[in-house]
């Protein structure tokens, strides 16, 4: 793109970049400029968060401009593909946060050219650049790159006095300052990314500690309770092993559910329950026996997902029911079957466990073991619900009512 235009007549906007090489350079103090660059390097190392405002102030001072600022490109901003003004100094300071469209901005032209751009009366050339009660006679812009390659925006200075005209020396100094700005922005963004990564790591570490603590607490309770009710060390070992394996299968399922949620596709209640019943019932199926899941003909549109805590609790409940059925109920017979059903009722979900084909039930048991107590405590304590047991002759029926809010945890 080329804009080889001559100096404009008064009040007419035009790109006059070629004037930078034609105008005599004003007298400058090299030592002062070198000292300013050294000071910038020190500021960038010692106070990176305050560096960019300081750099803009230096740019305005060394160029003897009346306004200065940095415009960063935001292609996906709510306003569209725009440049947003940052760190403004001088007469333009009240306009911090203002945006100009990428396709109608001096900054866009600057990035397209890939070098310094000088514009006379920029508000005449780009109407979106106009500022109330402020006349801009010249605007000098230089591109800012991240790592020397990725375009980020532009550093610019403005003259509000027609007697102050920019030259090649100003462009050279601003280009050096823009290289500092690109390095600083990269450092700030890298530091921010590192801070976010460390914060996420800390969250994951705390979550891991929390989960391990919960598992150890549950495991400790299972061991203690099994020791009190077991008739022999072998019976205790088998009981604890089965319950810990149920916890392990539930935790593995939790991991798979969380992974799918991270992929942006959270599993539905039906699919989670289907997977849970499958992994818990697997050891008890075959030889004519089985555990089947009957789902509603039409799944409610407002169903929910099961949270990690509730999924683990449900896994333990189903394991206890399956273990009891294998010992005394339907799964102890060659033709026995368990049917699991669920339905949504308002803010609750009702899960039904129904056994059939097993030994006839004469009456409800007069004593309850640890497994029954564990189920009841889990339903009421962790799932905010209630449990009802019925003992018809054909087999045990369990209705578990759970709060939808508790299931999501």
UniProtKB/TrEMBL annotation:
Comp. bias (Polar residues): 1-10
UniProt EC number: 2.7.13.3
Keyword terms: ATP-binding, Kinase, Nucleotide-binding, Phosphoprotein, Transferase
Catalytic class of the enzyme: transferase
Keyword Nucleotide-binding in record: yes
Alphabetized Pfam families for the sequence: GAF_2 (PF13185), HWE_HK (PF07536)
Keyword Phosphoprotein on entry: yes
SMART domains in UniProt: HWE_HK (SM00911)
Span list, region Disordered: 1-33
Gene Ontology molecular function: any one: kinase activity
PANTHER family reported in the protein's UniProt record: ETHYLENE RESPONSE SENSOR PROTEIN, TWO-COMPONENT SYSTEM SENSOR PROTEIN
Protein's UniProt name: histidine kinase
Organism: Pseudochelatococcus lubricantis
Source species taxonomy: Bacteria, Pseudomonadati, Pseudomonadota, Alphaproteobacteria, Hyphomicrobiales
